[in-house]
From TrEMBL:
<feature type="binding site">
    <location>
        <begin position="261"/>
        <end position="268"/>
    </location>
    <ligand>
        <name>ATP</name>
    </ligand>
</feature>
<feature type="coiled-coil region">
    <location>
        <begin position="109"/>
        <end position="164"/>
    </location>
</feature>
<dbReference type="GO" id="GO:0005524">
    <property type="term" value="F:ATP binding"/>
</dbReference>
<dbReference type="Pfam" id="PF00580">
    <property type="entry name" value="UvrD-helicase"/>
</dbReference>
<dbReference type="GO" id="GO:0043138">
    <property type="term" value="F:3'-5' DNA helicase activity"/>
</dbReference>
<feature type="domain" description="UvrD-like helicase ATP-binding">
    <location>
        <begin position="240"/>
        <end position="509"/>
    </location>
</feature>
<keyword id="KW-0347">Helicase</keyword>
<keyword id="KW-0413">Isomerase</keyword>
<dbReference type="InterPro" id="IPR014016">
    <property type="entry name" value="UvrD-like_ATP-bd"/>
</dbReference>
<dbReference type="GO" id="GO:0003677">
    <property type="term" value="F:DNA binding"/>
</dbReference>
<dbReference type="InterPro" id="IPR000212">
    <property type="entry name" value="DNA_helicase_UvrD/REP"/>
</dbReference>
<dbReference type="Pfam" id="PF13361">
    <property type="entry name" value="UvrD_C"/>
</dbReference>
<dbReference type="InterPro" id="IPR014017">
    <property type="entry name" value="DNA_helicase_UvrD-like_C"/>
</dbReference>
<dbReference type="GO" id="GO:0000725">
    <property type="term" value="P:recombinational repair"/>
</dbReference>
<protein>
    <recommendedName>
        <fullName>DNA 3'-5' helicase</fullName>
        <ecNumber>5.6.2.4</ecNumber>
    </recommendedName>
</protein>
<keyword id="KW-0378">Hydrolase</keyword>
<keyword id="KW-0067">ATP-binding</keyword>
Length: 693
């Protein structure tokens, strides 16, 4: 039976059309279903540059351009246009097979030929070309064919390449843009999903290429399914994946695997698709987990959009990691009585005083978590020889002994009182799971992995048996905003070479991204796997306004301007719910909320996202994992960022100081990269050293 797929760009176009046209397009799919009986009415195109392109009637005024197979009966709808335009489009385009990854691609031959003289002319004015640094061999290996290569060799400026996006074959353009953005040929090769094993694709076999391109060609079972796709207010991420996202979501891995990449590169989307893929395998329960309950709610909502049937939805549990640990704990021991931070501080203070020690509560609080629990220390001997790199003040041996006594007292007191912290619950839940012969989950997928503590990683390891496809990790260490820096290997998770890095940002404009990335220049950040993470090549194809940077003489002026900015956006038609305001401190957040409320702007908390159409106001930490059309970041002055109280003095511990500064930088980076279209950053006095003004 003839089958029609729809190219993703065509789908995007159709989604923007009026409902009746969409319905007619869906009917075209019905015609293919019936074609068995009646034959297909595909028109040949005179003077076509690619004789596999045909047109099909959609209605009186609209026609579709269809790629007809040379053999077999899998057709692809490439374009829907007005009658004359459809024929013209079909005449000027050609479909080919990318030599590097074997996927189909389409180019506008007329446009390439028309643009070539202009770029050649410009190239004659200079000796420097955009791709001088890349050899022909590398271009060829990256799938850049002769025609595109000839064009690329004449380019002198990135802007020319950006314009060429409309007519060059997409994968080849992606590769060129990656090279122009400073990626090495190897990085580009990985980025376009180059297949090392299959070096020789048959570039004449378009039918095989279509079958090999599931992330670009959506196959639907008839008009009803297509109408279903059209009708939902869905986001494109649900059906279109970049080849690397697709690979990460659908591959089989021999053990733990992960996906990394800068902000907005689609790691969460890949994690969601992987959860769906594994759920469809139906070989056991899938856990999709993340750091906070707010993020878990957002994941749950998106997961439900992807999992169509309740039966499959049932196979995926979405919870934040502490919630899962609490559940395991509660099943064995009943509900734990949780010690809150204020009570915990009071205990540390009392115990330190009892031992006449000078350690502060915050120091003890962190030391216990970051050294004792993180390294699973249970004895004085182990503590005395433990690594304390990056833990602030250096300790003499007698001080360590004293510290261990306080920590010991603390643990005893909690045990006697049957009081628990979330970390203790996690450790106990891990112990319980380690004893069980059967693990609760068959697959675990972790999102926002960069902030998980070693205790949480051990819990994850204990929740799933070591087996193929056991753990999948999505995260970006450039967005780490808490204090742990675990190595996956040390917590028993070996990802080997099973790592994919995404570089194409789908969220933010190139201008906002470039400005935000400038905060991280020359900052070396670990990759949780004992090497350094890279952010080079992270790029966006969408252009917009540069960030607005505003300096004010006083806090008062800064606050006034904040209200003015929000009003300007609201007047321009931005919905309140599309705006977020972030600040480093709780006090600034409270101030901003009260101020906006007083001015009659509807406001709500970031944590309670989705509760009405309100401007969300919250801390920079609270912005993690979220995105908004317009983002304001206030209080980015030199006295506010880095937040002094959060940074270890350099004279106390150089390494801890450097880590704290890096974390503060990342906090700001996270907040700024949540903006889709507009970013407004303000401060009073001098700007933070993190930003370039
Ligand atoms: N293949 C895709 N096609 C279109 N849009 C996509 C695609 N992948 C992701 N997106 C969109 O890009 C945005 C960012 O995606 P996502 O949240 O998965 O990125 P991320 O890498 O997890 O971001 P961050 O690390 O900053 O939280 C979302 O709006 C998502 O819908």
């Amino acid at each position: 039976m003839a089958r029609l797929g729809i190219d993703i760009d065509c789908l995007k176009d159709v989604l923007r059309m009026e409902a009746p046209v969409r319905e007619r397009v869906a009917e075209v799919f019905g015609k293919f279903e019936e074609a068995r009986h009646t034959g297909l009415h595909l028109e040949k195109v005179n003077n076509a540059r690619d004789d596999r392109l045909r047109t099909i009637r959609v209605d009186l005024s609209w026609r579709g351009v269809v790629l007809a197979p040379e053999t077999g009966d899998s057709y692809t709808l490439l374009k829907v246009l007005g009658h004359d335009d459809a024929y013209r489009w079909a005449q000027r385009h050609r479909v080919s097979v990318n030599a590097a990854n074997g996927r189909i691609e389409v180019r506008d031959l007329d446009a390439i030929e028309a643009a070539l003289p202009e770029v050649t002319n410009e190239a004659q004015q200079t000796t420097d070309r955009l791709f001088d640094h890349v050899s022909d061999g590398d271009l060829e290996r990256l799938g850049i064919d002769e025609q595109t290569r000839a064009f690329a060799r004449e380019l002198t400026r990135v802007e020319q390449l950006e314009r060429a996006r409309a007519f060059l074959p997409a994968t080849q353009w992606d590769a060129l843009y990656g090279l122009a953005a400073g990626m090495t040929p190897e990085e580009v090769w990985a980025d376009i999903g180059g297949d090392v094993e299959s070096t020789s694709y048959d570039t004449q076999d378009v039918d095989a290429a279509v079958a090999r391109t599931p992330e670009r060609v959506l196959l639907v079972d008839g008009p009803a399914e297509l109408m279903h796709v059209f009708r939902q207010s869905f986001a494109l991420w649900r059906i279109y994946l970049h080849p690397l996202q697709y690979q990460a979501a659908h591959s089989s891995f021999r053990g733990p695997a992960r996906i990394t990449g800068g902000p907005g590169t689609g790691k969460t989307v890949a994690a969601l698709h992987r959860a769906k893929h594994l759920a469809l395998q139906d070989d056991g329960q899938v856990l999709l987990t993340t750091f906070t309950s707010a993020l878990a709610s957002a994941l749950r909502r998106d997961m439900m959009l992807l999992l169509e049937t309740p039966e499959v939805a049932h196979r995926v549990a979405v919870h934040n990691v502490d919630q899962v640990a609490h559940r395991v704990f509660t099943e064995r021991h009943g509900r734990p009585a949780i010690l809150d931070k204020a009570d915990e501080f009071a205990i540390w203070k009392r115990l330190a005083k009892r031992r006449s020690a000078s350690f502060g509560e915050q120091f003890l609080y962190d030391e216990w978590r970051q050294v004792v629990l993180a390294q699973q220390i249970t004895s004085a001997g182990a503590y005395l020889s433990a690594k304390r790199a990056g833990r602030g003040r250096k300790l003499a041996p007698q001080q360590r002994v004293q510290l261990w006594e306080i920590i010991w007292d603390f643990q005893q007191e909690l045990q006697l009182a049957d009081r628990w912290t979330h970390e203790m619950v996690c450790v106990e839940a891990t112990r319980i799971l380690n004893e069980l012969p059967e693990k609760p989950y068959r697959h675990v997928i972790v999102d926002e992995a960069q902030d998980f503590s070693p205790m949480q990683w051990r819990f994850i390891r204990a929740a799933v048996a070591e087996s193929p496809d056991d753990i999948f990790i999505a995260g970006d260490t450039h967005q780490r905003i808490y204090n742990y820096r675990p190595s996956l290997r040390e917590v028993g998770i070996n990802i080997g070479g099973r790592s994919t890095r995404l570089t194409l940002n789908y969220r933010t404009t190139a201008e906002i991204l470039a400005w935000s990335l400038s905060m991280l220049h020359d900052v070396a950040i670990d990759d949780m796997n004992e090497s350094l993470e890279k952010i080079a090549g992270c790029r966006s194809y969408v252009h917009g306004d540069p960030p607005t940077l505003r300096q004010f003489p006083t806090p008062y002026d800064e606050r006034e301007a904040l209200v003015g900015q929000i009003r300007t956006w609201l007047r321009a038609g931005v919905e309140p719910g599309e705006i977020a305001v972030a600040a480093r401190s709780d006090i600034l957040v409270r101030d901003a909320k009260e101020l906006l409320q007083r001015q009659g702007v509807p406001v709500g908390s970031l944590v309670k996202q989705g509760t009405g159409n309100v401007v969300h106001v919250g801390t920079m930490h609270g912005m993690k994992g979220l995105e908004f059309r317009c983002v304001v970041v206030i209080g980015v002055g030199e006295n506010q960022l880095p937040a002094r109280s959060a940074v270890t003095p350099v004279e106390e511990d150089e390494l801890a100081h450097a880590h704290d500064i890096q974390r503060e930088r990342c906090v700001l980076f996270v907040a700024c990269t949540r903006a889709r279209e507009q970013l407004y950053v303000s401060w009073h006095g001098q700007p933070s050293p993190f930003i370039s003004v």
